[in-house]
Amino acid sequence: MNETIVITNATIYPISSPRIENGVLTVHKGKIQQVGQDLPIPEGAYVIDAKGKVLLPGFVDAHTHIGIWGEWYGQPEYDGNEGSNPVTPGVRAIDSIWPAHFAFEDARSGGVTCVQITPGSGNVIGGETVVVKTWGTICDDMIVRNPAGMKAALGENPKGSYGSRGKAPKTRMGIASILRNALFKARDYSRKLEAGRQDPSKMPDTDLDMLSLIKVLNREIPLRVHAHRADDIVTAIRIAEEFDIDYSIEHCTDGIEIAEFLGAKKARVNVGPSMWARAKIETLNITPKTPGVLSKAGCHVSIISDHPFHPIQYLSTTAATAWANGMPEEDALRAITLTPAETLGVQDRVGSLEAGKDADFGIWTGHPFKIRSRVEAVFIEGHKVLG
Amino acid sequence: MGKPHEGFLDPRDELTTGQILLKKEVNDLGYTAIVNGTIYSASNRPDVPFRMPKGTILIENGTIKAVGERVDIPEGSEVIDVAGSIVTPGLFDAHCHIGIYEDGATDAGNDTNESSDPVTAEVRALDAINPRDVAFKDAIAAGVTCVQTDPGSANIIGGQTVVMKTWGSSVADELMIKFPSGMKGALGENPKRVYSGQDKMPKTRMGNAAVMRRALVQAQDYLRKKELAVDKPDKQPDFDLSKEALACVIRKEIPLRVHCHRADDILTAIRIAKEFDIDISLEHCTEGDKVLESVRASGFPVTMGPCLTDKSKLEVKDIGFAAPVALSKAGVKLALITDHPVFPIQYLRLSAGLAIREGMDEDFALLSITRFPAEIAGVSDRVGSIEPGKDADLAVWTKDPFEYDSKVLYTFIEGKRVYEATNGSKIGGENL
Fold first, then answer.
1. What band does B3 get if pLDDT is binned at 50, 70 and 90?
2. Among the four residues A198, A246, B64, B158, which has the most C-beta atoms within 10 Å?
3. pLDDT tens readout for residues A20-58
């Protein structure tokens, strides 16, 4: 690989700054060196003439299950929900990921270069999430942030997973109490750890679940709460505020019903999958208008595929549909780039085309919100991974 | 058309769509003229251009009376000026489960598969249609005016399919325009999985084919016995509802509509069709590009999709747009389908748009969601293109109907303006 790559004659959407016509992007050792117009071309650089095509940051999908869901591989490759206990904070998505899974290739084919992979929503507390690039063979080398959050779930899924087996939770109030209990237990454990540090004889036995959950109480990572229905969203925030923890709302389908409430809190919401039938009661109010209404209300809106529930290669299709239904163009582009990068806490590396960030980008034949536009080439850290 | 969907309007309509009109609010004048629109007729009649930059559609009592650049408008007509807009035929989804797999109604509203026996030729999708399925509203607001609803693919022989309009009545029989329009069949993973779970035949693909052949042979025998006993009432076989239904396939009155994703299942469907000299359509045909010449040479039509869904099982591992594009280039007659609720029906046009992105011809893409599905469903005498004599089922778009930000301004069904965009529903798509 040439250490220096220059893309010339591109229409660049840096996302963090206004569009650049006839733009130049220079890459050195996998990092973006410069973005602008009329930049000098370093000697020996590998030059790509974009011929006026569109250059965008690699897309960031803040909520996926790529590499951990069976899809056509079926049960042998299904590692999405550790559905043996409603509280499993100690499990880690990183330990389920299969980098050879075709879903990573699907992601790249749609210009998606960075994803958060979360455990499923069968458990009230599902485990640690991870942010990875979508290209590589050694999962540990693909990591951008680990852990990147703690998955939690309210509503139908945990009820369905456990209620049907005659176990708690069977109700929404049951779910909330299990979540609160776990957080209180982690708080107690944290206190015992502190006592143990003062007096080694008082050190409690190691509890991996509690050690993971303490990261949430210490605000090292947010609780990422699956919540579709408005009451579930409100419950998530009620509990997060009780414990003074950081949170993001995952799916947020009914967010459109309580947009002012969420906007006033400047909530971080990961909305989707939107192009879906009303598969469950908690998704009855699904509409492509939700991202636009929430962004106008002041929320930090990311648009998600929830792959495989909407295929990740069509992430830009979902954003285009949100734009077509009222989300401002700038917000809709941001919702699959810089906003998810911020929500995931990886904005120092990805999400926009700025000097110093990773050279993750896609070259599109036209604006991605035009249906005939397709991504022709994708780069991750300066490596051409598509095209 | 009968009574409207009473209570169809709810407070959320303003938020989710434009206005869906109740019958009493709909114009019932004799003549309606839709003027100044760009018309994509999708017609193959020599006297009707496929595309007209500016034309008039004259509707008389629900039927298209005339279409062209110069059309005399009778006095007293209601004139609707759609300058700057594009008029297409109402869109047609040739394979979906709208009405029988109710959106948002969970198991209580799911009547898709009568999976108590692998051969249930006698069941009828029409008997499971709930016209109050909320998805009909989505369809109308997205310009989809006609659908074929199929039983699911759990059974080898799944039951009779129905073609219906998406608006007009709370009575399924009054929405229906053709019944039966086909007999559902299925090969591949689904029947295997369902009946393996019940420890019954079929458990394998060879079992699938054997069950299908046995059902067809039994229907042939039944017909033969009936013919032998034409003048001997005492020799008549007992009336058999299931075999009577399959006899329609044997007599080529309706096609067997065979769910087949994988290449080998596609070939099995064609093999059985030739053995029995029956008509079939290849439903899904996901790997059709891998056996392109066999599909093309068979002459059987194809419905393809849903193309934007996940690779949830082995037989759909290569789902996407490569296959429909390849089949379209080979000249195979194909309809793009949503398989609603597998992919929501309101995004039918985006499937066609993405097919264009991947190389499908623009005219072909339009045909794949208008006239071709109408032909495949056997109702092209009434719907599928804009030409004199056909039902006035139309969609009026703010711009190129394949674009993400195109909006339906009006949907007409049988000349009635059943959907009208409100200001709220036109929001979006700024700044490009």
1. very low
2. B158
3. 999 999 999 999 999 999 999 999 999 999 999 999 999
Q: Contacts of residue A287 in chain B, CB cutoff 8 Å? A: 15-16
Q: SS3 helix, strand, coil % of chain B, rounded to 5?
A: 30, 25, 45
Q: What is the CA radius of gyration of chain A?
A: 21
Tokens of A261: 């409430």
Which pLDDT does position B27 carry in this prediction? 52
Helices and strands, number each (H, E), in chain B? 12, 17
Show Cβ contacts of residue B28 under 8 Å, excluding neighbours closer than 6 positions. B416
> Is the CB of B432 inside 8 Å of chain A's CB atoms?
yes
Identify the three-state secondary structure at position A280. Answer: coil
> Considering CB atoms only, which of A72, A277, A284 is closest to B341?
A277
Which residue blocks in chain A are alpha helix, DSSP H? 102-109, 139-142, 156-163, 172-198, 208-217, 230-242, 259-264, 290-297, 315-324, 329-334, 338-343
Find the residue in B nearest to A289 (Cα): B16
Q: How many residues does chain A have?
A: 387
Cβ of B308 within 8 Å of Cβ of A314? The answer is: yes
**Cβ distance B153 to B186 under 8 Å?**
yes
DSSP reduced 3-state for B236: coil
Q: A74 by DSSP, 3-state: which? A: coil
- B347 in A contact zone (CB under 8 Å): yes
Chain-centroid distance of CA B153 in Å reads 16
Q: How much of chain B exceeds pLDDT 70, in percent?
A: 94
Tell me if residue A224 falls in helix, strand or coil.
strand
Does the structure show a pLDDT above 90 at B9? no
Give phi and psi for B125, each to the nearest 5: -55, -35
Query: For A193-248, how does the pLDDT look when each residue is reduced to its tens digit (9 = 90+)?
Result: 999 999 999 999 999 999 999 999 999 999 999 999 999 999 999 999 999 999 99
**How far apart, in whole angstroms, are the C-alpha atoms of residue B428 and residue A305?**
21
Confidence category of residue A332, pLDDT binned at 50, 70, 90: very high
Asked, as a colleague might, if the bond just before A57 is cis with ω within 30 of 0, I would say no
Task: Say if B371 is an interface residue toward chain A (CB within 8 Å).
Answer: no
Give the residue from B96, B112, B310, B405 with the most A CB atoms within 10 Å of its CB, the best one to mutate: B310
DSSP state of B370: T
> What tokens appear for A167 in the block?
């176990």
* Nearest alpha-carbon partner for B269 in B223, B330, B315: B315
CB-nearest to B340 from A74, A277, A374 is A277
SS (H, E, C) A13-53: CCCCCCCEEEEEEEEECCEEEEEEECCCCCCCCEEEECCCC
Find, among B225, B141, B61, B357, the residue nearest to A110 by Cα: B357
SS3 label, residue B102: coil
Stated pTM of the model:
0.94
Please indicate if any CB of chain A lies within 8 Å of the CB of B108. no
Per the omega criterion (within 30 degrees of 0), is the bond before A308 cis?
A: yes
| A201 Cβ neighbours under 8 A, 6+ residues apart | none
How far apart are the C-alpha atoms of A158 and A161, rounded to whole Å?
5
A309 touches chain B (CB under 8 A): yes
A75 interface with B at CB cutoff 8 Å: no
Q: Give Dmax (Cα) for chain B.
A: 77
> Distance between CA A249 and CA A175 in Å, rounded?
16
Q: How far apart are CA B316 and CA B319, in angstroms?
A: 5
Contacts (Cβ under 8 Å, ≥6 apart) of B422? B14, B18, B19
Structure tokens at A141: 């080398």
- Beta bridge pairs of residue A383: A380
- Determine, for residues A374 and B358 on separate chains, whether the beta-carbon distance falls below 8 Å: yes
Q: How far apart are CA B323 and CA B339, in angstroms?
A: 17
- E strand or H helix at B218, and its extent? helix B205-228
